[in-house]
């Protein structure tokens, strides 16, 4: 009998959880399937790349603090939990590195570029790059998620671009199932 790799279904379920806004569930699923993911070298394995993407996006959307629960070994909880500002920054930095590598492998993929822009916005030192990347994608109508439009709206508000903010917030509302996601009064990420 052929061996069945149950991780394929697990990654599909994690992708669905991410799409549904359940970041902790998505991240926890990936970490349970690939507990060593932080140390895996990047390669062409599509399953590993899907796992990297889900975990990187979930980490960014959770501002680097994944409350993945007691079902994981203690060392993984400490790695991903983001209890301190330094740990959260480390997780965001990992997310950015993972998404940059995926973007290098698949150039000109608007979905990966959108994900990278979202992650970049979570690091104050990369917000200018995030604004440029997401702004370019929005100009071509290639932003692939309402979360990214919400991020773009916040970045534009921070830069004083009220018209750009309103346009991105409106576009977010047309895409989002939960309109509260599009409210831009919150921060883009950790403040510096």
Model description:
It is a single chain. With 192 residues, this protein is an all-alpha fold. It folds into 2 domains: 7-85, no CATH class; 108-178, Serine Threonine Protein Phosphatase 5, Tetratricopeptide repeat, CATH 1.25.40. The chain has 9 helices and no strands.
* Helix proportion range: 55-70%
Radius of gyration, in Å, reads: 16 Å
Overall mean pLDDT score? 88
Q: What is the succession of H and E elements?
A: HHHHHHHHH
Q: Write down how many β-strands occur, each being a DSSP E stretch of 2 or more residues.
A: 0
- Based on secondary structure, the structural category is mainly alpha
Q: Which blocks of ≥5 consecutive residues have pLDDT under 50? A: none
Number of helices: 9
Number of structurally distinct domains: 2
Distance between the termini: 56 Å
Task: Provide the descriptors you would attach to this structure in a database record.
192 residues, 62% helix, 0% strand
Write the layout of secondary structure elements.
Elements: H1 7-19, H2 23-33, H3 46-61, H4 74-80, H5 85-105, H6 110-121, H7 127-139, H8 146-158, H9 162-175
Short account of what is shown:
The protein has 192 residues and is an all-alpha fold.
């Amino acid at each position: 009998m052929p061996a069945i790799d149950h991780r394929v279904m697990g990654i599909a379920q994690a992708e669905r959880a991410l799409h549904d806004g359940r970041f902790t569930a998505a991240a926890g699923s990936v970490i349970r399937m690939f507990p060593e993911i932080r140390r895996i070298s990047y390669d062409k394995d599509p399953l590993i790349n899907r796992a990297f993407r889900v975990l990187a996006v979930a980490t960014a959307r959770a501002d680097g603090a994944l409350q993945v629960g007691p079902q994981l070994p203690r060392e993984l909880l400490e790695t991903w939990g983001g209890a301190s500002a330094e740990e959260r920054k480390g997780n965001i930095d990992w997310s950015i590195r993972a998404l940059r590598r995926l973007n290098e492998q698949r150039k000109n993929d608007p979905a990966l570029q959108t994900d990278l822009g979202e992650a970049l916005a979570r690091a104050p030192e990369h917000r200018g790059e995030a604004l440029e990347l997401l702004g370019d994608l929005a100009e071509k109508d290639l932003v692939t998620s309402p979360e990214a439009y919400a991020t773009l709206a916040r970045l534009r508000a921070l830069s004083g671009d009220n018209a750009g903010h309103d346009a991105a917030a409106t576009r977010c509302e047309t895409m989002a199932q939960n309109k509260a996601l599009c409210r831009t009064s919150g921060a883009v990420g950790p403040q510096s």
